[in-house]
């Protein structure tokens, strides 16, 4: 309750001043709400009264002394100006911190100030012409960008940089939807918007590529799998294994151990794809943990045996650093004696005995050494050397070599002498390794990579391909910590030398683009007819054939649905080409393809299973009167891929070797017509084929690199155009323009004038590339000599009716600084300028206004859409709503706290998109901007997909959809009732919609359409099975 006023106005004023001063000392400002009370005094209203007295200046009691007193305690007379200045200071701090004033519209300062929205308001005021010049000067000092479209592009790039930094800081992980803001940006929500743009087809290819380069996947389930896989991969690289159960110090990534366990369970159920299995195995995934642990301890035993020559290890902790191994060996001896453990198989017994396992631990180690020595001596006397095959004796020999080098236990001088007497060679592999390495260096000098198939032989007959495969195997052993001997042994020095010549450690990266079915048919036919091959355009007969057998003049094509669905005419054309060249032609076609007529034999598959393909291959062999091989695709799968990889990679390299030889001799790739290599390949045709493959993105990066190494020019015509453009640049530097006569020739005889005339002709026909237009316009090219230009010192010389109105618009713009003219506006000369401008906007929207008129009007800042400001204001409100609510899923009846009908506006945008609105339709730019803030164009479909994902999540966790009708998720969604409504929709209930696509999606997650109502006990069991993980 306010106190009564004092009879002395000065006393009252002084009292309130002291209160204001105390408030200022405590809070360092006087920005007080109007209804603020202090000790019963209306201090807020009093402060407002002082500001009002200051502005009006008509209160005789409001003296200069009082003004000075108030200013001494920080009185701000213009609150709005102070607030503006405070936001400007925030913008200045943002620029100092981030190096730019391009603030995302959703950015909020750490103090909660909406700096992005404030800056957007300044742009709107600038566009309307209501921004004070002084304020614009202050904002220009901070390099504010006034063009919102440029700002949006910068916002995307800024968000992308933040995301890239986030991914780098979090070991490849992407932010979740509910992640805390990063520099004021909710990256999780932003990423979700990008997925929506991608699904709607509104995300540009360049932005897709940028996100994909970070490892981003457009499917959320795949993204989660990839995230965990990268964590597992990093863990494997750091620790050399994926046995998180061996590391209990809490340093392993959160939830990684559970995820690996889930993968093992999925593997046992057959729920992992072959690619996922392969990738996990590449990083050391252990599917059977118990077997793995036994093998790990066995490897420790092997290492101990090689070092010490025996397995007599103490199991007492503190007496031996290998007490854990001693305990394990003791357990193995106990298992051997009891024979009760079914896992202790005969294979394990043999493995342990192969490394000198003595089941009775009391046997003397010297007697044991002599026993093995006698075995070695017997082998030497029988074979003349001491290189036994893999087995217990070889293991013992390798242990002695390690002991001799002082790395694996002890060996006496007498024992060394005894072994040397029977032909012991301590280091036999190094000399052979260096010889093969020199051959690999020679190959690398020519091909710039060691992409050598396993079957490759050097000119002197050395099996270089097999040797490199052995190095890869040795490298995998090295990474896994298996440092045993043998031909696959490799040292860090060897690895370093091979890395210097581009060693490919993963042999699976040598591949090519051919269907699995083609590879399979070629594999079996090649086993009967060694000359069977895949023919490219640069080979005889001059067109592509999947498989060609020259000795039989027979071609086979495999037609898949994906590539041949709409290619019947081309398929028939290839048949006619084969007949023209006298080639017998066979086609194998997948189900769903139309029959072909122009072929000698057409085999229509009844299915895509391996059995159908095997039957087709037998039919081909029978038709050709050839002996039928043993066909089993599942069994031969690995050989099929390896054989094709070796064949295809070597085939390309054989032609490249001819090209490389020509280049080293002549320094160019100019081949005379009909120049063939030793294998009959037309080299000029092959070069042109590589250019086509390059344009179609069919060459590997290595092939591109190798061709560019020998001076390959991918687009000869582009090179010629660039040469002519450089001549035009030189002409422009000399004469200051491009007014080149059509008959002009350069000193070198180049018809530059004719070339420029051709560019103008292509421009008029709309055939000139935008990039070339940009380059030529940079030199000031004039596309039409009838084109007129205007600058500040020159008027149009042609006073047509259009230009008379344009002159009037120009005068108005110079006078007012804008063209916001009512439609009824008439100039002093009687020109209906308002109506004329409205007509220009209409012609612009209809695409009937020519480019020169558009450029002239835009030079005086015409606004083509006069309603855009209103739209931008509503969009800013929608963007603020989307930021606060993680999307734009808003009711059509929603009204903002300020009373603005935002929900109705959002609904109007949906109507405009579907051309249902009475006003102008939604522009592509407006749709793009709404997509970026999570616009839901079809709320009903979005709600359906939301419920579907809940059902899918339940199915993935529980393996079924046996959900009672009254089942409700933890988030409160009535999932059981929704599933029941889908069954009703399928039965024809008009209250629900069921499409073929929706049915397909539900079928994929095991929907049972005739499921009876389940009891509450089922619901309880289902809830127990979920174990709280159904969030």
Automatic annotation (TrEMBL):
Pfam families: HA. Gene3D superfamilies: 6.10.140.530, VSR Endonuclease. Residues 11-75, 81-143, 153-216, 223-285, 293-357, 369-424, 430-503, 650-712, 718-781, 800-860, 868-935, 942-1007 form the Helicase-associated domain. This is Helicase associated domain protein. It comes from [Clostridium] methylpentosum DSM 5476.
